[in-house]
């Protein structure tokens, strides 16, 4: 017996032993049943394990219908046994008879296994038995194929025996494939929806991604597919479980928080199993990747040898195709593990961890930081962490294995080259390569530095943009779109410059890595030629193929290293954020709220004067009403924040009841009779946080709906009349931040939320400032002191002490950050019970009767507060395109990126590069052909000649490759820059109603994630598509030139690849759009919820909002998961086509009659690359098309109609001094928000003389704010631009009339000019991050003296200048250090380090600084105390209504014509009691207009009723009657 026969026998015995072990459980049960005397029919009908029962056999026919797979296994296996028996009987010799008999025994054992599989009911058990048996069948069949191939090469076999052998092989493969197709378990469902089938799929279905086939078909055929149509992800992929794993890992961090290194180690500990899986597969892949080069070498060696040795060519051709197929499958599987096992869950995990951390952050962590320094805990940076950093870390983590894989491939490649060329040639080549690495290190360090600058620039751009979008109303009211656009473009230009530098260093790095392999190949081939003689095809082409692979590997190294550098930066940012200070609470448990000698501040870094309450000792009565008052900026809001645990306790202590858990409040079934929990807290901020949703959802706030309590709350908060004005009543959808609600409605909804809650402690911050006196009286009587308020601890911050003191149990007054007095009301105000409160009751009681009547009329058990019809959506779902991307998108992108000329140059570079690449291999073919012809007589001069031309071609190819990459990246960046400017311009000029309806998260999604793709990815996508396309052309050309018949197979290949590509793209593009859309809700929630973080924490709702974000993250992960799943499904099938075509090409080439080694090498060296080129082209094109979805989404918003379309009628450019006077004439004005909605203003006719002070009063919904919007042309009497009609003054359907200011029709004046000449001071003030000076004068148009003068006019007294604001601190002529300190005082994002009243004062000072001719104030002093309000009103008379200084736009001072016209929307009659005239509005109409005295004298007048209903009616009457006209 020969050695091969002995080895074959040993392998047969080992396989038989393995089969016996696998089949032992089935064999044991079979013998057990046979021992019990079961009939053969019973065994055929199936059996169970011992202890299981089966009532009756089902019969073969019934069993086949119920489980055809098992019967197919039994039948096929029986045929294999029969064929094996025939082979054993008719074997030619003893050896064949023995081996055939061993295989027969193995197949018989497997028959028992298949019967066991057929009958075993539990799917996991059947799955285990089936895949183990399938593995054994694979081993038997594989060994038979190998043995038959080798024996065919050694000795000729009879045709019948050979045919029988191959029949056994085919049937054996059928058995193996069938057994591997058993499902693992039954499909899982969650909440009635299917779960992804990866965990339940069979082995065969899993490795081929077959379970995605039905999903691909569904997505390809349904262009309106939604995420609800896709399966849910498994439990291990859900955000809640992933966050729990992260929190466990985070527990291993130091007390000081995570560092980049500990965070990296922690993430590795979470995903070590996946990483080990990748590493174990990387080892065989590194070897298999170069098996095609080995097969190519053997085929070329045989072609160069005698014809007698050509018999092995077909075998090596099959090995070549098989190795290409297996290696490409391993690559694809590793990509699957990288993206779906690591990247997707890690992105979700980091996003959830970042949001969870942001919900615990201290509100003032970033207070005091410099204007140019991005705070690590700001809302904007949280969005950046989620949108960019989490994704970058996750992708790099998924591809960590690639670093090892490429190193292993380099090692295998070097080993193969050393065997092929000799160690001297390899050493020379590697020495040459080592010389390039210092340059590479330099490029890497430069790239790292640029990457950091890029991220900082991106952070600054996003933070500024976010604040601009949040303050877009103030920007548009002031007509500052152009100026903010310039500032944003400046930040964008800095980002683009950093991106350009990053691209330049990337291209330089790429050039080095392209040039390195060229020099290695030149040096290696020259050394080989000089030392070992002429270059032959069997050496040249495998060497070049291997060197080309090395070139590809080295080309990946820059991307891998740059990814690692970027991930390092992102991990550092994430670790820094996770290490940020949290809100610790700083309170101690007690039965009531007490402060004992407490000194509190928003920040530990606060100065000795700024933002501090000092030595506060207070004891708020349990279940009593405490009223806190004080001047603006005295620390009232800070006091409430300290009770919420949102502040730093510098000394002393704060005691409060321990709040119940979230579950105790919201997850227990509440008893209506025992609703309130004494220690639970509810908080109503000065500007209540309103989330997007219905009014009912905002009031319920996670609690169950109890109709009786809900109706009671709605009545107590005076919301019943508001519901009458809303078509969908309490089911009316509210926009983000309550943009479609008035300030008073927001406050009452916030109060209703607190009253409906189960809180026993109510913290109410100035809830009366935004409502009129009637509503305030009603709220106090029915909400604060009524049945819903009684029995609760109520701490009310207010300036309206007269209204509240009579029912108060405890009065606190703050002054200059200290307690002025704190007494019980009995001691301080003994006679208040019959005092001022009773003065405000008559109309309030009458109003209460109306409310009672309304409530009674709705009594009856039915829920008739809500809308009887389906409510309308205020915020529409985000739209998405359907179907394939149209060519217009490509054309528009090309035009934006520089036109067709740039792309023509780019295409020329790619064609040149491809021609040079083909020329390299053609020249090698000539060199090796001549080397064979010349034999050993090749001289050194000939080698130099061939080498010189080859090196020249290769260097030119490298230059062309670098140039094409540079042009592609610059072209894409040019397009990105222009698209950003275009989108920014349109968004800033978009209609206000559109901006209200579009959540900021959608805009931020486009400005962050979408532009990240356009900036950093599209350039590489373009490069990949063009490169892969030219590669495919070159590969197919090389094979067709040598063997023209391959053209037929190339056409078939192209047809099959095109079919799969179309099918894949049809499905993937829809999922990509879903994935893009699914990001917006995540960013929107982060941006929105962090604005209401104090409210969410106070109500103990963090868990609910974290759970909501988890749901959104799950949907985003669901889209990403299926997108990558479709990619892997598609790649597997394209790889299979490529492997088949490569095999066919190799067989066709080697079987050509006159083939030579040189020609075969030229053709087959490309064939090795075909599968990769096909996959690369399909993947690159699909990636490009899907990433162009970002361009599509950007263009979608870039094409929206702007407020001011190109005029079709002449416009008027007013002179610079316009308006010379503030005269306002409104004639027959009827206007609506859109042409399709009902008018909100009806037939308004007003004439307001220059310099007059006009008060505008009326109940909520009367049209006061709508009139103000019309003055600024937000309600334009001309047609809405979206109609496409002319912008004339009176042609709109449902809109008519005109407004003239200083005798010019505002409809004919450009919007930016109109709004910049007026000023609007809103009720909800908007401040931007920076300093006081940068907020008052953001574009440095005034000197410090002018800014200080404006602050002095509003009596600014921030806590840093309380004592000196009227002396040296704000002296207009001085530049004292105190003045510089005031102007340089920091403003945190949104102005959260100032009280609401202080923010109003700064907005008022901003308007005074501009000295406009017309000023509209919408409750601009509602949040300041009465004394400050009176002082400010005097300042307004002196500032706005005095002569407009030379710095203003008016003419010479002193004349009445230069006085500012002031329109004030007021709820407090005191504010407008001494005004020149008063406009009283109701239901969008002017019902009264005249002087306050005239209107007060009108019997039954609305204004008179408002005055008489005020708590200070007597004082107001004296003020009004004492004013003469």
UniProtKB/TrEMBL annotation:
UniProt membrane topology term: Multi-pass membrane protein
The protein's UniProt keywords, in alphabetical order, are: ATP-binding, Membrane, Nucleotide-binding, Repeat, Transmembrane, Transmembrane helix, Transport
- Chain intervals with Low complexity compositional bias: 1359-1368
Q: Name one GO molecular function term.
A: ATP hydrolysis activity
Q: Which GO terms describe its cellular component?
A: cytoplasm; membrane
**Primary localisation category:** membrane
Domain (ABC transporter) spans: 593-841, 1224-1508
ABC transmembrane type-1 domain location, by residue?
A: 279-566, 904-1186
Q: Specify the superkingdom.
A: Eukaryota
Q: Which InterPro entries match?
A: AAA+_ATPase, ABC1_TM_dom, ABC1_TM_sf, ABC_transporter-like_ATP-bd, ABC_transporter-like_CS, ABC_transporter_C-like, P-loop_NTPase
| Compositional bias (Pro residues) | 1203-1218
Tell me what this protein is called. ABC bile acid transporter
Q: Which organism is it from?
A: Aspergillus violaceofuscus (strain CBS 115571)
């Amino acid at each position: 017996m020969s050695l091969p026969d002995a080895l074959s026998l040993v392998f047969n015995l080992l396989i038989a032993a393995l089969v016996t072990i696998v089949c032992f459980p089935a064999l044991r049960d079979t013998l057990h049943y046979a021992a019990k005397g079961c009939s053969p029919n019973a065994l055929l009908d199936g059996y169970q394990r011992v202890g299981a029962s089966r009532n009756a056999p089902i019969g073969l026919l019934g069993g086949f219908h119920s489980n055809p797979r098992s019967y197919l296994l039994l039948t096929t296996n029986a045929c294999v046994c029969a064929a094996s028996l025939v082979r054993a009987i008719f074997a030619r010799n003893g050896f064949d008879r023995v081996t055939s008999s061993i295989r027969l025994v193995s197949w018989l054992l497997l028959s028992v296994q298949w019967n066991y599989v057929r009958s075993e009911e539990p799917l996991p058990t059947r799955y285990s038995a089936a895949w183990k048996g399938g593995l054994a069948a694979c081993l038997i069949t594989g060994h038979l194929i190998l043995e038959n191939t080798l024996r065919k090469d050694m000795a000729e076999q009879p045709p019948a025996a050979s045919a029988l052998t191959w029949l056994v092989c085919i049937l054996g493969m059928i058995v193996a494939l069938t057994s591997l197709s058993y499902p693992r378990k039954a499909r899982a469902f969650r909440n009635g929806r299917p779960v992804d089938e990866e965990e339940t799929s069979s082995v065969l279905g899993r490795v081929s991604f077959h379970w995605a086939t039905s999903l691909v078909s569904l997505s390809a055929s349904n262009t309106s597919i939604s995420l609800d149509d896709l399966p849910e992800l498994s439990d291990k992929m859900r955000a809640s479980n992933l966050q729990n794993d992260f929190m466990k890992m985070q527990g291993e961090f130091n007390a000081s928080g995570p560092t980049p290194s500990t965070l990296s180690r922690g993430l590795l500990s979470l995903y070590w199993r996946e990483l080990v899986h990748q590493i174990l597969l990387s080892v065989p892949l590194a070897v298999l990747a170069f098996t095609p080069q080995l097969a190519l070498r053997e085929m070329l060696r045989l072609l160069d040898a005698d014809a007698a040795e050509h018999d092995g060519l077909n075998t090596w051709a099959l090995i070549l195709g098989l190795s290409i197929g297996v290696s490409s499958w391993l690559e694809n599987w590793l990509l699957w593990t990288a993206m779906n096992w690591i990247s997707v869950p890690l992105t979700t995990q980091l996003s959830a961890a970042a949001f969870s951390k942001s919900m615990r952050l201290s509100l003032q962590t970033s207070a005091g930081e410099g204007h140019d320094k991005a705070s690590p805990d700001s809302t904007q940076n949280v969005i950046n962490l989620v949108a960019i950093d989490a994704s970058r870390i996750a992708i790099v983590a998924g591809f960590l294995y690639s670093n090892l894989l490429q190193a292993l491939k380099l090692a295998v490649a070097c080993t193969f080259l050393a065997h092929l060329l000799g160690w001297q040639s390899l050493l020379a080549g590697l020495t040459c390569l080592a010389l390039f690495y210092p340059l590479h290190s330099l490029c890497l360090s430069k790239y790292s530095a640029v990457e950091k600058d890029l991220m900082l620039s991106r952070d600054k751009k996003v933070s500024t943009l976010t604040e601009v979008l949040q303050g877009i109303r103030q920007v548009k009211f002031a007509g500052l779109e152009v100026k903010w656009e310039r500032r944003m473009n400046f930040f964008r230009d800095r980002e683009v410059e950093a991106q350009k530098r990053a691209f330049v260093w990337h291209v330089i790095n790429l050039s080095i890595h392209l040039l390195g392999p060229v020099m290695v190949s030149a040096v290696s081939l020259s050394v080989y030629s000089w030392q070992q003689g002429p270059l032959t095809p069997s050496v040249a082409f495998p060497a070049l193929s291997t060197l080309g692979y090395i070139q590809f590997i080295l080309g990946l190294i820059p991307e891998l290293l740059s990814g690692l550098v970027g991930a390092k930066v992102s991990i550092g940012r994430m670790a820094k954020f996770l290490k940020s200070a949290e809100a610790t609470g700083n309170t101690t448990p007690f039965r009531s709220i007490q402060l004992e000698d407490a000194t509190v501040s928003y920040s530990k870094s606060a100065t000795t004067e700024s933002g501090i309450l000092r030595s506060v000792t207070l004891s708020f009565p349990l279940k009593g009403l405490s009223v806190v008052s004080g001047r603006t900026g005295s620390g009232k809001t800070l006091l409430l924040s300290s009770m919420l645990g949102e502040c730093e306790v510098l000394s002393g202590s704060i005691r409060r009841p321990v709040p119940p858990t979230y579950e105790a409040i919201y997850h227990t079934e509440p008893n209506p009779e025992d609703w309130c929990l004494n220690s639970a807290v509810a908080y109503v901020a000065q500007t209540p946080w309103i989330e997007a949703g219905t009014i009912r959802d905002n009031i319920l706030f996670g609690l169950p709906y109890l109709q009786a309590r809900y109706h009671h709350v709605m009545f107590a908060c005076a919301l019943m009349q508001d519901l009458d004005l809303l078509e969908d009543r309490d089911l009316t959808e509210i926009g983000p931040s309550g943009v479609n609600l008035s300030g008073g409605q927001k406050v009452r909804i916030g109060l209703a939320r607190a009253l409906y809650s189960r809180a026993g402690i109510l913290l109410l911050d100035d809830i009366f400032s935004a409502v009129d006196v009637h509503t305030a009286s009603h709220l106090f009587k029915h909400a604060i002191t009524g049945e819903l308020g009684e029995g609760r601890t109520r701490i009310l911050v207010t300036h309206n002490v007269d209204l509240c003191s009579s029912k108060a149990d405890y009065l606190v007054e703050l002054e200059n950050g200290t307690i002025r007095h704190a007494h019980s009301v009995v001691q301080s105000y003994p006679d208040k019970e019959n005092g001022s409160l009773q003065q405000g009751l008559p109309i309030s009681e009458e109003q209460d009767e109306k409310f009672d009547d309304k409530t009674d009329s709705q009594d009856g058990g039915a829920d008739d507060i809500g809308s009887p019809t389906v409510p309308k959506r205020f915020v529409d779902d985000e739209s998405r395109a359907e179907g394939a991307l149209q060519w217009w998108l490509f054309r528009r992108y090309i035009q934006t990126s520089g036109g067709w000329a740039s792309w023509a140059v780019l295409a020329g570079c790619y064609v040149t590069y491809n021609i040079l690449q083909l020329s390299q291999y053609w020249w090698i073919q000539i060199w090796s052909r001549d080397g064979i012809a010349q034999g050993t007589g090749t001289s050194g001069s000939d080698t130099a000649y061939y080498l010189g031309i080859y090196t020249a071609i290769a260097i030119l190819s490298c230059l062309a490759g670098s140039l094409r990459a540079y042009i592609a990246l610059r072209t894409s960046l040019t397009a990105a820059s222009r698209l950003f400017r275009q989108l920014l311009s349109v968004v800033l000029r978009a209609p206000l109603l559109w901006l209200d309806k579009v959540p900021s998260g959608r805009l931020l999604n486009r400005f962050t994630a979408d532009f990240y793709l356009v900036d950093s990815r599209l350039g590489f996508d373009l490069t990949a598509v063009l490169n892969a396309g030219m590669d495919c052309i070159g590969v197919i050309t090389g094979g067709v030139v040598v063997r023209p018949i391959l053209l037929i197979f190339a056409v078939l290949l192209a047809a099959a690849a095109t079919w799969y590509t179309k099918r894949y793209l049809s499905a993937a593009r829809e999922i990509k759009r879903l994935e893009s859309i699914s990001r917006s809700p995540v960013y929107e929630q982060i941006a929105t919820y962090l604005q209401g973080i104090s409210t969410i924490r106070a109500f103990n709702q963090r868990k609910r909002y974290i759970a909501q974000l988890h749901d959104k993250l799950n949907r985003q992960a669901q889209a990403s998961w299926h997108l990558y799943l479709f990619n892997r499904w598609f790649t597997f099938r394209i790889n299979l086509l490529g492997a088949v075509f490569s095999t066919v090409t190799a067989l066709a080439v080697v079987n050509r009659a006159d083939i030579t080694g040189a020609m075969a090498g030229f053709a087959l060296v490309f064939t090795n690359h075909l599968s990769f080129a096909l996959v690369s082209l399909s993947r690159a094109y699909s990636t490009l098309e899907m990433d162009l979805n970002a361009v599509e989404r950007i263009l979608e918003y870039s094409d929206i109609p702007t407020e001011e379309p190109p005029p079709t009628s002449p416009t008027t450019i007013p002179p610079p001094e316009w308006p010379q006077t503030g005269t306002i004439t409104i004639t027959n004005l009827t206007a609506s928000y859109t042409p399709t909605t009902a008018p909100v203003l009806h037939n308004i006719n007003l004439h307001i003389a220059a310099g007059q002070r006009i008060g505008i009063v009326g109940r909520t919904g009367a049209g006061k704010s709508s009139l103000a919007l019309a003055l600024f042309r937000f309600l334009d009497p001309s047609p809405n631009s979206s109609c496409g009609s002319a912008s004339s003054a009176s042609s709109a359907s449902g809109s008519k009339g005109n407004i003239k200011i200083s005798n010019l029709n505002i409809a004919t004046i450009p919007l930016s000019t109109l709004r910049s000449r007026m000023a609007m001071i809103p009720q909800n003030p908007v401040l931007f991050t920076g300093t006081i000076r940068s907020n008052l004068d953001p574009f440095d148009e005034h000197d410090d003296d002018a800014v200080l003068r404006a602050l002095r006019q509003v009596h600014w007294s921030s806590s840093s200048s309380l004592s000196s604001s009227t002396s040296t601190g704000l002296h207009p002529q001085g530049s004292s250090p105190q003045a510089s300190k005031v102007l340089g005082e920091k403003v945190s994002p949104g102005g959260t380090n100032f009280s609401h009243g202080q923010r109003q004062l700064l907005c008022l000072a901003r308007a005074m600084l501009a000295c406009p001719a017309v000023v509209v104030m919408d409750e601009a002093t509602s949040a300041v105390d009465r004394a400050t309000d009176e002082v400010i009103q005097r300042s307004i008379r002196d500032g706005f209504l005095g002569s407009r200084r030379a710095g203003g736009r008016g003419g010479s001072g002193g004349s009445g014509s230069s006085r500012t016209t002031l329109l004030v929307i007021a709820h407090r009659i005191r504010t407008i009691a001494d005004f020149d005239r008063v406009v009283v509005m109701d239901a969008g109409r002017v019902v009264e207009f005249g002087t306050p005295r005239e209107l007060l004298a009108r019997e039954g007048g609305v204004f008179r009723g408002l005055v008489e209903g005020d708590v200070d009616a007597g004082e107001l009457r004296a003020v009004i009657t004492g004013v003469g006209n």
